[in-house]
TrEMBL record:
Record bears the keyword Transferase: yes
GO cellular component: Golgi membrane
The organism of origin for this protein: Sparus aurata (Gilthead sea bream)
Localization terms from the record: Golgi apparatus membrane
Pathway(s) this gene product operates in, as recorded in its UniProt entry: Protein modification; protein glycosylation
Family: Belongs to the glycosyltransferase 18 family.
Catalytic activity line of the entry: N(4)-{beta-D-GlcNAc-(1->2)-[beta-D-GlcNAc-(1->4)]-alpha-D-Man-(1->3)-[beta-D-GlcNAc-(1->2)-alpha-D-Man-(1->6)]-beta-D-Man-(1->4)-beta-D-GlcNAc-(1->4)-beta-D-GlcNAc}-L-asparaginyl-[protein] + UDP-N-acetyl-alpha-D-glucosamine = N(4)-{beta-D-GlcNAc-(1->2)-[beta-D-GlcNAc-(1->4)]-alpha-D-Man-(1->3)-[beta-D-GlcNAc-(1->2)-[beta-D-GlcNAc-(1->6)]-alpha-D-Man-(1->6)]-beta-D-Man-(1->4)-beta-D-GlcNAc-(1->4)-beta-D-GlcNAc}-L-asparaginyl-[protein] + UDP + H(+)
Name by which UniProt lists this protein: alpha-1,6-mannosyl-glycoprotein 6-beta-N-acetylglucosaminyltransferase
GO biological process, one term: protein N-linked glycosylation
Superkingdom assignment: Eukaryota
Length: 612
């Protein structure tokens, strides 16, 4: 295989051998009898293909060009007459040239222009990271995968509400993440197709042209499909029941996560977890989040721009000790914030980046210097001068705080008491998760923390005042967690694409029991570990309870997202009946849960130490 064009020849002078696994009835080839198929060139299917391959354009659609090699590929990969061909697996080679990627992203929407600008700006950092990871993986063969990326929320059919807002301060976090996913897959050397319209989606998944001689629902032409909830719905409408056959190939980019109780359609309907977004009956790790907040899902992430040594030194020299930048591009985010802004203004000059067309937004106090909406590079320069980046509580879990911290800012954010969730806050209502959000940016609070991240009650004026005075005395170095660097994301995506169905290894398992009323997320975290739902299958047995000194007087199998778990009241052990409900999330005062914990790589929480 060379440049995706097939060349085929016998090895060492011996003809290609082909053992047919089964014969089938076909309207094209007729009934196949028990002929001698050891020589494919003399077999009935090959004879038919030689004589009739031009009879229907669908054969050319599937790559048939009249050569024996193309007949062999067609008969093994489209009609499934013969086994897969090992030599069709190509090696993935790191690629730093981004021209072909930019062409594939396309034009015509401001959202696509934003993504292309980001890809260009970050290209050098991706190339440098690829060289480092290539050195690290030198001994590992990587299979090139055929990958479709369908960005459903940017299609006209889904409303494409984001594109008109790109230049007006609208949310950009999703587009940042998608741009980085596309770049990571491209740089890792995979065969990538990109779709941002239903027409493109139909073309890639396609119905072959012609008179119907080729199968309409043959093998999926992709090893993996990355999409979102909008795209998943569009694929269901296009593929119908055949989608079930191909579900395992799908990865859903899902900012806030989907917990198993919401994902399992029957269980969600029976137990009140049904929402507009869940119920797809996927495995939890097929959902990929922006931050590692839900271990039931996979952490995809994004990247923040890294500083070189010269830039780091310049930041230390140019920091303005009394300069603060507010996290909030939309005027509505500033409403009702005058009280603590007035306190902040006693100590610091406050800068904003709030979008406006002609007049200054009235929600922004007069003492704030508003720069309007800034291009990314100008925003970076502003953050490199500022001492403080302050959040108002919304938006939740966006990229900007990590970018500010990477540019040497302290991030100050409000604590939520009680935590925000789908039970008490409109924003989370209807989202397929029961997660309780303790602050505007829980990742920054939990995984970074002081002195770079300070989380306080903004309603306590005395605490707010004291914290600002404390910040004036603190100097911090720029900080970017490894998992949000280009190399960290490449490492993580490489591991997902190559190994996700077969890891982590059993050797990573650390079995713990939660306290009553405690989730496995919290139980594992308290031991310095991560809950790993892929390992539940090893502990969903009666013997696991004995390993933790639980004495089972009775054992029940049940569809319950808290199982496996132990009930002390009844001395009863509960085992999970449906693997789709294995969940790290969820707790009950009735149960101590069995928790499959694992270790993780330094700076890369998504991967165990032996998972690269």
């Amino acid at each position: 295989v060379s440049d995706n064009k097939l060349t085929c020849s016998p090895v060492s002078g011996n003809p290609l051998k082909l053992n047919y696994l089964y014969y089938k009835e076909s309207k094209v080839h007729g009934r196949l009898g028990p002929d001698n198929f050891s020589q494919p060139s003399g077999s009935l299917p090959f004879q038919w293909m030689r004589a009739r391959w031009t009879s229907d354009p669908c054969y050319a659609f599937y790559g048939v060009d009249g050569s024996d090699c193309s007949f062999l590929v067609y008969l093994s990969e489209v009609e499934w007459f013969c086994p897969p061909l090992a030599w069709r697996n190509q090696t993935a080679v790191f690629q730093s040239e981004i021209g072909t990627l930019l062409e594939q992203v396309g034009t015509g929407k401001e959202s696509l222009s934003f993504m292309k600008r980001r890809i260009r700006r970050m290209a050098a950092q991706w190339a440098s990271a690829a060289r480092r990871l290539d050195d690290k993986l030198r001994a590992h063969w990587r299979e090139q995968k055929r990958i479709l990326v369908h960005v459903g929320f940017l299609t006209e059919e889904s409303g494409d509400v984001f594109s008109p807002k790109v230049l007006k301060g609208g949310p950009l976090g999703e587009m940042v993440q998608w741009a980085d996913i596309l770049t990571a897959l491209h740089v890792l050397g995979h065969n990538l197709k990109i779709s941002v319209s239903l027409k493109e989606l139909h073309g890639f998944l396609g119905v072959p042209p012609g008179r119907g001689s080729c199968p309409l629902t043959g093998p999926l032409p992709f090893d993996l499909i990355y999409t979102d909830y909008h795209g998943l719905q569009q694929m269901k409408q296009h593929m119908g029941l055949s989608l079930r056959k191909h579900k395992c190939h799908i990865r859903v980019i899902d900012t806030f996560g989907t917990e198993p109780a919401y994902n399992h359609e029957e269980y969600a309907t029976l137990h009140g977890y049904r929402t507009n977004w869940g119920y797809w009956n996927l495995h939890g790790q097929q959902y990929m989040t922006m931050f590692p907040h839900t271990p039931d899902n996979s952490f995809m992430g994004f990247v923040a721009e890294e500083l070189n040594e010269t830039e780091r030194l310049n930041i230390q020299r140019n920091k303005v000790n009394n300069m603060a930048v507010v996290y909030g591009k939309e005027a509505s985010m500033w409403k009702g914030k005058e009280k603590f802004l007035t306190i902040l203004h006693r100590y610091m000059d406050i800068h904003g980046t709030v979008y406006f067309e002609t007049q200054r937004p009235p929600e922004v106090p007069a003492f704030v210097k508003n720069h309007g909406l800034l291009p990314q590079q100008e925003l970076q320069q502003l953050l490199r001068k500022a001492k403080l980046f302050i959040g108002f509580g919304f938006p939740y879990e966006g990229p900007a705080p990590l970018e500010a911290i990477a540019n040497g800012c302290i991030f100050l954010q409000p604590k939520f008491n009680p935590p925000h969730s789908s039970l008490n806050h409109e924003f989370f209502r209807g989202k397929p998760t029961s997660r309780k959000v303790s602050s505007q940016h829980p990742y920054a609070e939990q995984y970074i923390g002081r002195p770079h991240v300070i989380t306080i009650d903004f309603n306590n004026s005395e605490e707010f005042d004291a914290t600002i005075r404390e910040i004036m005395r603190i100097n911090v170095e720029p900080l970017l967690p490894y998992e949000y660097t280009c190399e960290g994301m490449l490492e993580r995506v490489h591991a997902y694409v190559q190994n996700q169905v077969a890891w982590p290894p059993l050797s990573a398992l650390r079995l713990l029991a939660s306290s009553e009323g405690q989730s496995c997320v919290t139980a594992c975290q308290s031991a310095g570990l991560i809950c790993e739902p892929a390992l539940y299958r090893f502990i969903n047995i009666k013997e696991a309870f004995g390993g933790l000194d639980f004495q089972c007087e009775g054992v029940e199998f049940e569809m319950n997202h808290l199982f496996p778990a132990f009930s002390a009241e009844h001395a009863e052990c509960g085992l999970q009946q449906d693997p789709l409900l294995f969940s790290c999330a969820g707790s009950s005062a009735k149960y101590q849960r069995l928790c499959p914990c694992r270790d993780y790589r330094n700076g890369q929480v998504a991967l165990c130490r032996d998972c690269l």
